[in-house]
Specification:
- This protein is an alpha/beta fold and 188 residues long.
- It contains seven helices and eight strands; from the N terminus they run ββαααβαββαβαββα.
- Helices cover 43% and strands 19% of the residues.
- The chain has a three-stranded mixed beta sheet with strand order 3-4-5. The chain has a three-stranded mixed beta sheet with strand order 6-7-8. Strands 1-2 form a two-stranded antiparallel sheet.
Amino acid sequence: MLVFFGGWTFRYSRVAANAVSYAVSGKYSFYTLQPRTRVKAEELALERFFLEAEKVVPEKLQKTLVSEVMTTKLIVLHQGSTVKDALDTFEGTNLRVLPVIDTFGHVVGVVNLEDMAYGDVKRYSLSLSETIIYNLVLISEQSSLEKVAQFMMEKEEDHIFVVDKEEKLIGVVSGIDIVKKIIELLSS
């Protein structure tokens, strides 16, 4: 589909939508709201499947460990990384959240793509710790699926990072990872 705007022709896409919304509204983009909407839908899916699993397979929820669900192939940022480094890393992945670790593998914070998008080009050379790094939720690899799901729903977290006994980062769990595992538990 082609869109005509002020003598310009655009193929309808996210880029065109961003350009049009920016031109119409100034510095605000309508597209930036979509990722947050997707997160809300994932939270609702987690809640619905969890409530069903609590009724049907409560013992499986308690016995399943987060280490069975977590993603272990991690993409991380290092403590000295700049905003530009982080944006380059995000560009090579489809992730929205990345942990920041120190030289020992301990988690020092997290950055998310949505907040990075609001950054000014002048800030690209700043280190992440000077700009937009957040504290994050850490859990033990021995935590049960039940406790993790309850915590994610209560705190409205969509990612929780998993650490070992030495508090080194070993994995990440998203709401959708938990939903997939609950579906597996319900169907077995």
